[in-house]
Amino acid sequence: MVKTPLFPEYHKVKLLLQALEGIEASLFQAMLNSIWAATGTPQKRVSWTEPDQWIPQRLKGKEALLAQRIWAESRGKVNPRHVRGCKFLIDNYELLSLHKGEYAITPAGRVFMGEEPNEASAHIDVEEGLVFLLYRLSIHGRGKRSTFHEEWKEYLLKNSNYRTRKTINTSLSQRLRNLVSRGLANREGNQYSLSEKGQHYLQNFDQNSSFSSLNEEEDLSHQIDSFNQQQRDALYKRLQEMDPIRFEHTIKDLLLALGYEDVVVTSPTNDKGVDVTGTIQKGISSIKEVIQVKRNTTAAVSRRVMDGLRGSLYRFDAFQGTIITLSDFTKGTVQSALDRGAAPITLINGQKLLDLLIENGIGINRHKAEFFTVDPDYFTTEEVDDIEDERE
Predict the structure, then answer these.
(1) How far apart are CA 368 and CA 310, in angstroms?
(2) Measuring CA to CA, how many Å separate 307 from each of 266, 272, 310, 322, 339?
(3) Domain 129-211, what fold?
């Protein structure tokens, strides 16, 4: 049952367990209450990023000493302001107990603090849905957080009391962060994948897994992912080979799909470095934008190109610009794209362009592949007992 909000990284929980051993529970709770009272308001925010500064300013006496102990013994890894998630997990899985009012690490807590994998952390991983997420990572191979959102939502509807979109999103982000911090998953940019360590760890759960038809579903999903990757590569090759003017019209189709209005492909003989223009509604304002298209796939787009586009904004009475390329951008271009005081320039490289085209159905045909799996919950003993009760 998924039940721990503000789900923490395990190494922080271990450090907090160590720091709390022998501490009065009432003192720890008093420290939390004092910190909470000093939180501030949305209109007057309070910074908690420097514990060495705020602990002596906002806490007194034993509470300040305890906060300093947590910060010092964790070597600056556990901010006393952000320990509620650790405390929730400790309480939910009884990693601490009380002895004469003081915290003592339980046998389960000792096991949890040991080297992973261990029985205690594995139990929590199953209960809190981390093993489920590892399985989904193994099935998808690679994906953004949004890739797992609907699957995680369905899992939570069956295995938790979480219902709001914010809670679902937050709980997913926190658990993915936990898996990455433990080396069970990899993160590159906004993409997650199962690590080699995660693959080995997942094998421990095969015989007891309740995820029916997992192997067959995994094989099927891998086949679909492989096919889609082949089509993605084919789409990229088509973009490389297509006529430059037709490519600009493809960008026009994309902008229209994204909600732009008055999209125009400029004249190739007098474009002043601008290939496409359009307007986008942002709030109550209608913003004109200019787009430069660089189909070259061999060289990264330099800052000089971006500066040239900025210089062309006034010619089209535009507020912002975008550069779209099949290649990528130099480091200097990326750094200066959002220079303070300069007109904003959005940079879209080849991989991002492919994402946008596929998401918006430009140059592709979508096909629905439907399959079903047996629902093991339908055949549980409880269902049979209910039927027997009806007969009586």
Answers:
(1) 43
(2) 19, 13, 5, 12, 11
(3) Arc Repressor Mutant, subunit A (1.10.10)
Determine what percent of the chain is predicted with pLDDT higher than 70: 91
Asked whether the beta carbons of 292 and 321 are under 8 A apart, the reply is yes
- Please state the pTM of the whole predicted model: 0.61
- Residue ranges per domain, the chain? 10-121, 129-211, 241-359
| Share of the chain residues as helix, strand and coil, in percent rounded to the nearest 5 | 55, 15, 30
pLDDT score, position 219: 67
In 3D, which of 38, 48, 115 has the Cα closest to residue 78? 48
User: Residue 67: what are its φ and ψ, rounded to 5°?
Assistant: -60, -40
Q: Which has the closest alpha carbon to 125: 140, 112, 110, 141?
A: 112
241-359 is classed CATH 3.40.1350.10: yes
Q: Are 320 and 343 in contact (CB under 8 A)?
A: yes
What mean pLDDT comes out for the span 304-309?
92
| Cβ-contact 240, 297 below 8 angstroms | yes
Decide: residue 6, CB within 10 A, 0-12 exposed, 13-18 middle, 19+ buried. Answer: middle
Phi, psi at residue 23, to the nearest 5°?
A: -90, 145
Give how far Cα 198 sits from Cα of 103, 180, 204, 225, 346, Å.
Answer: 33, 10, 10, 20, 36
Q: How far apart are CA 98 and CA 84, in angstroms?
A: 18
Per DSSP, 379 falls in state G
- Considering only residues 206 and 105, tell me which one the structure prediction assigns the higher pLDDT: 105
Q: What number of CA atoms fall less than 13 Å from residue 182's CA on the CB side?
A: 28
User: Whose structure tokens read 């592949």?
Assistant: 369
Residue 162 to residue 177: CA distance in whole angstroms: 19
pLDDT in tens, 126-182: 999 999 999 899 888 888 999 999 889 989 998 999 999 999 999 999 999 999 999
Check: CB of residue 34 under 8 Å from CB of residue 58: yes
